[in-house]
Amino acid sequence: MLNFVYHIPTKVLFGKGQVSNLAREIKSFGGNRVLLVYGGGSIKKIGLHNAVVSQLNAEGIFFKELSGVQPNPRITSAREGVRLCKENKLDFVLAVGGGSTLDCAKTIAGGALYDGDCWDFFCGKAAATQALPLGAIMTLAATGSEMNGFSVMSNDEMLDKFPTYSEALRPKFSILDPTYTISVNAHHTAAGTADIMSHIFEQYFSNLTASDVPDRLAEALLKVCIKYGPIAVKEPENYEARANLMWASSLALNTMIGLGKDGGDWAVHFIEHELSAIYDLTHGIGLAILTPRWMEYVLRNDNIEKFADYGRNVWNIQEGSASDIAHKSIAKTYEFFASLGIPMNLREVGIDELRLEEMAAKAVRLGGATGAIGLFRRLAKPDILEILKKSL
Length: 392
Ligand code: NZQ
Ligand code: ZN
Fold this sequence. Notes:
With 392 residues, this protein is α/β, with parallel strands linked by helices. The protein has two domains: 11-180, Rossmann fold; 186-390, Dehydroquinate synthase-like - alpha domain (Dehydroquinate synthase-like, alpha domain, Up-down Bundle), CATH 1.20.1090.10. Helices cover 47% and strands 11% of the residues. It has 14 helices and ten strands. Strands 1-8-5-4-2-3 form a six-stranded parallel β-sheet, with helices on both faces. The protein has a two-stranded antiparallel ribbon with strand order 6-7. The protein is globular, with a radius of gyration of 20 Å. The two termini are 38 Å apart. It binds 5,6-dihydroxy-NADP (NZQ) and zinc ion (ZN). Zinc ion is lined by residues 143, 195, 198-199, 269, 283.
């Protein structure tokens, strides 16, 4: 294992009724003037908006609202939120919703203490080294944004979608009440499960050996998704399924299963962000389509044991050679995503060959001068184009 610092400071309030602690938590982190950020209205349908607003009013906490944050959140929403914070001298940002709402809130929290344009955090011009304190009430199990310092934003003018990372963007607290995820439809429940699993794969598939603690934890979390994803899709009101997915989502990307490892591969994520940037595709759907194709493409004799570990420990495939187990585990991955009702080809989600070349070229930008992304196996533009073609 490599050296690491363990410091995952977000306070988590997990379970039914935890929203009643909201005002106390906001005040404990110095919040008196809040920007309440949410999406297209799902929080109103489930009564959460009302619960939040009445508590803020009852506790005498001043607030302004920013609504309408879209899935694949746009930088224009964040700019509006920054303006509201600066004009009203707000001192706390509260996100209520899914990962898109929270990522937008993080960008606003950073942008409120920055003199330039908040897109600078995403195009590499600046880092969000300081931010207003931020809290979250999550309503969808997927991104892990509730415990990490990542934000991913889209820019419609450039058709770009980029991540940024800063410790300053970690939420001070996150309220995770699985009850609020019961209204998530089958499409987003399946996509969320695929996203959680992809975060685990991105960190699990590395060339380091003897990283048993993070890898065995990762396998356990994958098994949780495989067990509870289908239950949540078929029985949306199953609390235990929703609760297990919600906590798995946080642990998959709060940096815990990456400690002692090499930072992760992330090639599938970088390729998917190009699909979402141009076609506004749901993130988890793109990941589910790309992942089995990426697995087949990167599988080589020198990494076959990693895939065999995955097959034996996650899918319980014990018979056959390492190569047999590796290929079977990839087939299992594909079948699992398909069983959740996810369309498993790009054409089914409206993407044809027209812009594959452009997306392959854009996907390698985060590799900088090397012209390649991924750690488990380096991928240059022709490799990515091949993976995209196999995904059609
Ligand atoms: O906008 P509303 O009306 O709230 O509806 C949302 C949206 O349409 C709906 N929804 C959310 N909670 C609901 C609900 N509908 C009914 N009941 C509820 N309780 O679901 C739709 C999708 O919401 P969104 O927030 O977009 O989903 P998700 O949480 O999957 O977030 C996806 C975004 O996060 C980014 C993705 O790229 C994508 O932009 N990611 C963020 C990461 C991070 N910050 O760590 C890492 C990830 O890899 C990912 O890239
Ligand atoms: Zn993701």
